[in-house]
Amino acid sequence: MSKLKLDFKFIEREIRNKSFGILNTINPDGNPHTTGILYGVSKPEVEFALYLLTSMYYRKVKNIQRYENVSFVLPFPHHI
């Protein structure tokens, strides 16, 4: 069985093929707030960047404005 090389180009291609992630923020009471979110990716010819697609009125945005430390998870099948 050959080993799969997980270089940035491979991971970038996988990220570009998806559009859903899981965002974790912190509520004012210190508890986590976890929510699914759609994302977009910059064009291939510019520096790689992820853009989270949401409305400024959601709790996740208010949490990020108050405390910018977050985690963002992209679920991938185990066979990668």
Description:
The chain is an alpha+beta fold and 80 residues long. The chain has a single domain, classed as Roll (Pnp Oxidase, Chain A), CATH 2.30.110.10. Helices cover 21% and strands 30% of the residues. A four-stranded antiparallel β-sheet has the order 3-2-1-4. A hairpin with an 8-residue loop joins β2 and β3. The longest helix has 9 residues, at 8-16. The relative contact order is 0.24.
Topology at a glance:
Blueprint (H helix, E strand, L loop, with lengths): L7 H9 L3 E7 L5 E10 L8 E4 L5 H8 L4 E3 L7
Antiparallel strand pairs: 1-2, 1-4, 2-3
Count of discrete alpha- or pi-helical segments spanning 4 or more residues: 2
The name CATH uses for the topology is Pnp Oxidase, Chain A
Q: Please tell me the CATH architecture by its name.
A: Roll
Order of helices and strands: HEEEHE
Q: How do you describe this structure in short?
A:
With 80 residues, the protein is of the alpha+beta class. It has helices at residues 8-16, 59-66, and strands spanning 20-26, 32-41, 50-53, 71-73. Strand 2 (32-41) and strand 3 form a beta hairpin.
Descriptive tags:
single chain, 80 residues, alpha+beta, Pnp Oxidase, Chain A, 4-stranded antiparallel β-sheet, 2 helices, 30% strand, globular
